[in-house]
TrEMBL record:
Residues 86-252 form the Glycosyltransferase RgtA/B/C/D-like domain. Keywords: Cell membrane, Glycosyltransferase, Membrane, Transferase, Transmembrane, Transmembrane helix. It comes from the Bacteria. This is Glycosyltransferase RgtA/B/C/D-like domain-containing protein. It is found in: Cell membrane. The chain crosses the membrane at residues 12-29, 118-136, 165-184, 190-223, 230-253, 290-312, 333-352, 364-385, 397-419. It comes from Thermogutta terrifontis. Its main location: membrane. GO terms for biological process: lipopolysaccharide biosynthetic process. It is a multi-pass membrane protein. GO terms for molecular function: pentosyltransferase activity. One of its GO terms (cellular component) is plasma membrane.
């Protein structure tokens, strides 16, 4: 990594990165519990928590037999009707954090969402540490702190850090893989590239995105080293693939068939509906500018400007020393790797027939890479502000930059806990995004505990609560599992039956979240029933509790 001209002492770098990371981890953990104001249980959380618990329980029960063919087949069982095959590292993390608070580690039916969410929050804290440390090292103290804090100010990324799913963990591993190879390049030793490859192997073990982030890294190594890049590239590649193979026992048996299953199920699946520009699309037919537009409208405008300054500063007038600032040199090879990774990820999801859905979560690693550019851009802004004359106010530069940066936190505060519904000022916030035809709430995180408690308060003990849109067979169980109020009333939660015109028999209450892509599965006359309670933001409803018509529910089969 490049050193700024006035480098921050190593102990100060470490102290600054640790302080920011610990503070942000605590902030994230504060809001993971559903009953304490955290996001509602989203579509995939129950599946990932259950998979994680199954892994940990099997290892504790079988010991060394865990690695036998029979045990591997049982533990890593996959059904064609289920979700795609996923590597296990992210689920191991969720499973071990679940185990820390699990009163019945061997009872696979006893699950809890909140303990597993702690694992994601801690991973987010590690991500903040890496970004902050790298930013301080490369750009200076102000730039490093800005890079780390900007991760929190990106509501979409911050929201995913509260969920027991693989997305935030994937961001951590992909970011670590990129930063590790930058450190290896600085060392230049073959073993440094092997170690960096091991970190990439962890990204491969987390999700298919590990393969995606590996391609720009490999190109970058060859570009940097030219004819001398063969050995470093081989060491990096071999080490990563070896870690991937060793870390996933499912690949030890029937290796090529299992690899085929993994690659095919990651790219071939039942189409998922996407609401974009005022209409519903299948995920492979979404307009190809989707990823670029969604990135531009879901990052706070100030952070977009700071990152853009970092990029376009390369074309600004320079001093005789070739600098646009005192401490921040021209973008170096590592900065171009960060930018190249962003462009590559967005380009992948621009390619024809590549599925893209669920807001921005498929290209979420782009946000952490952008935070590094935000750090560089903020350091440049700081130096420009500092050059101004501040006769009346000694701390004027601090006040100006602090105020500008604090404004970027408005979205995180305003959208709590439905951060996945955030849109920036380029489209007029959430209200403007709804008018322009964007999705409102794609994953059900707006089904928060206050709304579910309102349903429980009005329902009889053991009564059925209908919810919709229903995206997966395990989604209803996850909502019930995450709500103390529903559990206390011993309520039954069922998804709106596919193709049904009327609700289940004797059901009087229904909660809906505003997923526009699939809201039509609920008949219009049901959606127009009186609203009893509502969770809204910026005048747009995110989730509702409605009372079902008595005649419809009583006449249902």
């Amino acid at each position: 990594m490049s050193e700024p001209s006035s480098p921050v002492p190593p102990y100060a770098r470490l102290a600054a990165a640790l302080a920011v990371a610990i503070g942000i981890t605590a902030l994230t953990i504060h809001d993971v519990a559903i009953e304490r104001g955290g996001p509602g249980v989203t579509c995939d959380e129950l599946y990932h928590v259950g998979y994680g618990k199954r892994l940990v329980a099997s290892l504790l029960r079988h010991g060394s037999r865990f690695f036998t063919r029979e045990c591997v087949k049982e533990t890593f069982a996959w059904s064609p009707e289920g979700p795609p095959v996923h590597p296990p590292l992210g689920n191991w993390i969720l499973g071990w954090f679940h185990w820390l608070f699990d009163p019945a580690p061997q009872e696979l039916s006893q699950l809890a969402i909140t303990p597993a969410r702690f694992g994601t929050a801690v991973c987010f804290g590690v991500l903040v540490f890496l970004i902050c440390w790298a930013g301080v090292h490369r750009y200076g103290l102000i730039g490093g702190l800005a890079a780390g804090c900007s991760l929190v100010f990106m509501p979409r990324l911050f929201g995913h850090s509260h969920l027991a799913a693989l997305d935030a963990i994937t961001v951590l591993m992909c970011t670590a893989a990129v930063l590790a190879v930058v450190v290896a390049e600085r060392s230049g030793r073959w073993w440094a590239f092997a170690l960096a490859g091991s970190v990439w192997g962890l990204a491969l073990l987390t999700r298919f995105h590990g393969l995606l982030c590996g391609l720009p890294i490999l190109v970058w190594i060859v570009w940097q080293r030219r004819s001398k890049g063969v050995v470093p590239a081989f060491c990096w590649l071999a080490s990563g693939l070896l870690i991937f193979y060793i870390g996933w026992p499912w690949l030890w048996f029937d290796t090529f068939e299992h690899l085929r299953l993994y690659l095919s199920t990651s790219t071939q699946r039942t189409p998922i509906h996407v609401f974009y520009l005022g209409r519903v699309w299948d995920d492979t037919l979404v307009p190809r500018h989707y990823a670029w537009v969604m990135f531009l409208v879901t990052v706070p405008v100030g952070l977009l400007i700071a990152g853009s300054i970092a990029i376009f500063s390369n074309w600004l007038p320079r001093s005789p020393q070739g600098r646009v600032s005192t401490f921040v040199p021209q973008m170096d090879a590592a900065d171009f790797l960060f930018l190249g990774t962003i462009v590559f990820f967005l380009a992948i999801f621009t390619a024809p027939r590549v599925p893209v859905y669920d807001g921005v979560r498929l290209f979420l690693p782009v946000y952490s890479m952008w935070s590094l550019l935000v750090g560089r851009g903020t350091q440049l802004i700081w130096e420009w502000i500092s050059r101004m004359t501040w006769h009346c106010f000694r701390y004027g530069p601090h006040f100006v930059l602090g105020s500008l940066f604090a404004l970027q936190a408005v979205g995180v505060v305003a959208f709590r806990p439905a951060w996945l519904s955030y849109y920036n000022l380029l489209v007029g916030g959430l209200a403007g995004a709804e008018r322009l035809g964007f999705e409102v709430n794609y994953w059900g995180d707006a089904l928060t505990e206050p709304l579910l408690a309102a349903a429980a308060q009005r329902a009889n003990k053991g009564e059925t609560l209908v919810f919709g849109p229903s995206l997966a067979p395990y989604q209803a169980a996850g909502i019930l599992l995450g709500s103390p109020a529903l559990a206390e009333k011993e309520m039954v939660v069922v998804g709106w039956p596919a193709g049904a015109k009327t609700p289940p028999k004797n059901a009087r209450w229904m909660v809906m979240y505003h997923r526009r892509a699939d809201l039509d599965q609920i008949p219009e006359e049901i959606r127009q029933q009186p609203v009893v309670s509502e969770f809204s933001c910026q005048g747009v409803w995110l989730a509702r509790l409605i009372q079902l018509p008595a005649s419809a529910s009583e006449n249902s089969p």
